[in-house]
Design goal:
This protein is α+β, with helices and mostly antiparallel strands and 294 residues long. The chain contains 7 helices and 11 strands. It has a 5-stranded mixed beta barrel. It has a two-stranded antiparallel sheet with strand order 4-7.
């Protein structure tokens, strides 16, 4: 009896000990599992919180919106007339603001053909952006515009003017002189600065002398200018014409009279604009204020 009682007590103690251990192990496992789950949940939430706290980048302004804010118009260059004049694909004649390349059409100046060929290589058939300064057209009906090869983010930033504006490109590379006609003076100081750089480096037309090969702001003999007096590429002399041509000068009207466009083109190969001494309305068949143009 005693032995049986002792045996029962021992077995009960072992059973209780085992149960206690199992309970403790269960508690430990439960706590560990809870910690693991909390850690995993915390790691899942961390990236979301990080993203939430990061500043959101502002959307960039589109090229179209930027161009509109700067008053730029996208056009295709249909034809190059000379170094500083183009015709758009829709027929508008555009004279570059603030610059003057040597003449290469109705009369020829040194470096004129080079300037004309340079503009052809850069612009003909290309899309460019037109920008008005103050004047819309000159007295010859040509549009006065700045030519941008790309849309600038800031149209008064010198680095962008140097790299994206074609008017500036002509001056920087010695194909044009700065030629300022008020009120279109927005970029005149830049053009004068660029021309001085080109002159010091003897680039292009400046390799022929300190006054270049055409009239402009740095030409020592340049005179004061008024609005709308951009060069037309035509001589404005009202004296006698070259021998062999059938033309006369009217003493009363100070004009040159030609029998027809064939005779006129012997003196002015590309025709003449309205206001020119040789202009006659009857020779302006398309009524664009330019007679006998090619």
């Amino acid at each position: 009896m005693i032995i049986s009682l002792i045996t029962s007590l021992l077995l009960g103690a072992c059973s209780n000990d085992t149960t206690s251990k199992e309970t403790n192990n269960t508690k430990v496992n439960t706590v560990a599992k809870e910690k693991t789950e909390k850690k995993a949940e915390s790691e899942k939430q961390a990236p979301a919180e990080t993203v939430k706290n990061e500043p959101v980048a502002e959307p960039k302004q589109s090229q179209e919106e930027l161009a509109k804010s700067l008053g730029l118009e996208l056009v295709t260059v249909g034809r190059v007339v000379d170094g500083d004049t183009i015709v758009t694909s829709d027929g508008r004649k555009v004279r570059f603001v603030g610059v003057n390349t040597p003449e290469s059409t109705t009369r020829h100046e040194v470096y004129g053909k080079e300037a004309s060929n340079y503009t052809k290589s850069k612009l003909e058939g290309k899309q460019v952006w037109l920008q008005k300064d103050v004047s819309s057209t000159d007295r010859y009906g040509r549009y006065l515009r700045i030519i941008w090869m790309g849309v600038p983010t800031n149209d008064m930033d010198e680095a962008e003017i140097r790299s994206k504006m074609y008017n500036a490109d002509l001056v920087l590379n010695g194909y044009a002189e700065p030629s300022t006609y008020p009120p279109d003076v927005k970029y005149s100081e830049f053009f004068v600065k660029f021309a001085r750089e080109a002159r010091e480096a003897n680039k292009g037309l400046w390799s022929y002398g300190a006054d270049g090969t055409t009239k402009g702001d740095l030409d020592g003999s340049s005179t004061s200018k008024s609005s709308g007096s951009y060069s037309t590429g035509s001589s404005t002399s009202t004296g006698s014409t070259s021998s062999g041509t059938d033309a006369s000068t009217s003493a009363g009207t100070n004009s040159e009279i030609f029998q027809n466009c064939t005779e006129l083109r012997k003196v002015y190969p590309n025709g003449v604009p309205a206001g020119h001494p040789a202009y006659q309305a009857k020779m302006d068949r398309d009524k664009d204020n330019y007679a006998c143009e090619q």
